């Protein structure tokens, strides 16, 4: 399979800092003895060099679809990177101390793409919940509670049902999304001149686009 | 440089990927050839197509790692609906992709730009600091997310 190797090598040795670096012993595929190598983890790419300071890595292990497991054999501080599929190599790596082994296992597990994606989704969800609570708090003058939105539901009898999507006052400190922009509120009852609308929402759209293209 | 090829082929063969579709592809110093592209995470695989344009063989011909690269729409390209990828460390060498319509082209550009782990990391940091500035506490400290092994 063709891989743009030159780019990978440049990524390995480039200015971007490694998430973790250090010596590990790697067991050979054919020759079952362990060889000490310098490893550098960048995201989900685990590069290894013959020695520290080498310009070009001798190999890369792309950490997609693998599990990190403790090794069953008798070698101390050994762990494995297990890949799926017939003929896929299991990489056996050994650290020098228990702590180093645990640190590497954790770094590799957290370097995976799916894990990072999960974190982003989780944080986005948290931010959405915070914003929803703030919206409610702004409208009902109840202190914002992020935990259970149901707690803020109609506890006071006799009041008409509150619709959180009615925004009679649009405060500037309202919903703030991850780009720091104020979202368009289609429920606004105000009659605006086109010029006003253009200025207000044009900036928001511009910011979104700038964020999009710089991503 | 050695890579874990056979493991990567397994990734490429997965049923569910983030995005896939047919594009004409021209690597540096090559001519356009029709390929089936599959994006999984920050890995862009490409495979051969049949005469009717479907994916011929899930075993990929090649893979591009989507880190440290810049993706541009090429409005003055040699074909309509073209975008390019340029990788850092390979200046003056661009990879060109030609789609079937404007929307497909733009959708791919958006997906590819968002695909790098670098992008995920900066989004994470942005969300983290946003939440911290509102709530005062670092949300990551409270999150106990135990990485689960992928489904076998």
Describe the model.
- The complex is a heterodimer of chains A (215) and B (152).
- Chain A has a seven-stranded antiparallel beta sheet with strand order 5-4-3-2-8-7-6, with helices on one face.
- Chain A has helices spanning 5-13, 98-111, 113-140, 194-214; strands spanning 2-3, 20-27, 34-42, 45-49, 59-62, 66-70, 78-83, 91-94.
- Helices cover 33% and strands 20% of the residues of chain A.
- Chain A has a domain at 5-113: PH-domain like (Roll), CATH 2.30.29.
- Chain A is elongated, with a radius of gyration of 26 Å.
- Chain A contains four helices and eight strands; from the N terminus they run βαβββββββααα.
- Residues 146-159, 168-174 and 186-190 of chain A have low confidence and may be disordered.
- By secondary structure, chain A is α+β, with helices and mostly antiparallel strands.
- Chain B is α+β, with helices and mostly antiparallel strands and 152 residues long.
- Chain B has one domain (6-135): Roll (PH-domain like), CATH 2.30.29.30.
- In chain B, 29% of the residues lie in helices and 29% in strands.
- Chain B has a seven-stranded antiparallel beta sheet, with helices on one face.
- The radius of gyration of chain B is 18 Å and the shape is globular.
- The model of chain B is unreliable at 148-152 (pLDDT under 50).
- Classes of the chains: A alpha+beta (215), B alpha+beta (152).
- At the A-B interface, β1, α1, β5 and α3 of A face β1, α1, β5, α2 and α3 of B.
């Amino acid at each position: 399979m063709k891989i743009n190797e030159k780019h990978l090598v440049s990524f390995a040795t480039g200015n971007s800092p490694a998430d973790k670096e250090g010596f590990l012993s790697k067991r050979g595929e054919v020759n079952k003895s362990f060889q000490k190598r310098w490893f550098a983890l960048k995201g989900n790419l685990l590069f290894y060099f013959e020695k520290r300071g080498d310009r070009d890595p001798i190999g890369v292990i792309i950490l997609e679809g693998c599990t990190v497991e403790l090794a069953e054999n008798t070698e101390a501080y050994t762990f494995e990177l297990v890949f799926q599929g017939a003929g896929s190599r299991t990489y056996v790596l050994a650290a020098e101390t228990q702590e180093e082994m645990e640190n590497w296992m954790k770094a590799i597990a957290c370097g995976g793409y799916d894990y990072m994606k999960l974190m982003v989704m989780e944080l986005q969800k948290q931010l959405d919940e915070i914003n929803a609570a703030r919206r409610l708090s702004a409208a009902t003058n109840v202190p914002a509670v992020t935990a259970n939105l149901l707690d803020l539901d109609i506890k006071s009898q006799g009041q008409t049902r509150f619709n959180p999507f009615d925004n009679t006052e649009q405060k500037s400190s309202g919903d703030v999304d991850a780009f720091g922009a104020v979202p368009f509120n289609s429920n606004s009852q105000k009659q605006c001149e086109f010029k006003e609308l253009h200025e207000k929402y044009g900036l928001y759209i511009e910011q979104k686009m700038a964020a999009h293209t710089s991503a | 440089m050695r890579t874990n090829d056979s493991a990567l082929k397994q990734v490429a063969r997965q049923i569910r990927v983030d995005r896939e579709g047919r594009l004409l592809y021209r690597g540096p110093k090559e001519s356009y050839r029709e390929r089936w592209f599959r994006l999984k995470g920050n890995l862009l695989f490409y495979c051969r197509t049949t005469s009717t344009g479907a994916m011929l063989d899930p075993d990929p011909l090649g893979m591009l790692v989507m880190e440290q690269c810049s993706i541009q729409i090429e409005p003055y390209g040699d074909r309509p609906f073209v975008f390019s990828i340029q990788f850092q460390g390979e200046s003056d060498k661009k990879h060109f992709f030609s789609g079937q319509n404007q929307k497909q082209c733009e959708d791919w550009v958006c997906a590819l730009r968002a695909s790098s782990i670098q992008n995920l990391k900066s989004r994470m940091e942005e969300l983290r600091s946003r939440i911290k500035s509102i709530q005062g506490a670092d949300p990551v400290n409270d999150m106990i997310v135990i990485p689960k092994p992928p489904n076998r």
